[in-house]
Design goal:
- This protein is mainly α.
- It has one domain.
- It contains 9 helices and no strands.
- Helix 1 runs antiparallel to helix 8 and helix 4 packs across helix 6.
- It is rod-shaped.
Amino acid sequence: MSYCLLLLLPVSALTGWLLHMAAGNYFLNRYLPRQDEQLAAKAGQWAGELVGQSFNIEQKVSDPALIEKAMPAIEQHIDDFLNVKLKEEIPMLAMFIGNKTTDKVKEVFINQLKILFPQVMLQIAGNLKTSLNPEQIVIRQLKQQPISSLVKKQAAAPLRRYRNAGLLFGLAIGLVNLVIFYLVC
């Protein structure tokens, strides 16, 4: 057996390492950057579906329990308006309006607010949902910082292991070739 055949081992190992390095670099520097727009669109679509399914803003803001929690503060503001501010702004009106009248006006306001509040909140939630489109936000952010640049930062150590695996596979293939040459010759 010729000693030149022993060069088969380092050549095979180097070939395996080079092929894995070329494949890894091609993936990170050529293939992945070409996929940035498609990946951003998919991520945006996923984020939009996730937000739409999990948050369900319309249902939460129109919940009667939420309205009941807000009512004490609303009643306090109505009281302040009817008993203090209205009398300050229109002093002549204060002479004609008593506590019974202000209590009745307050009751009417509160009943109307209980009817109006869920509708207004649904409208606000709908406007909020369209103005805060999570799909577009994710796409915009991923166009500013593409996925390929994020992956490159995270892929340094795995890429090193991938190249080393190529070196080991090349060495194993070289050993198999060496055994075959030894058995045949």
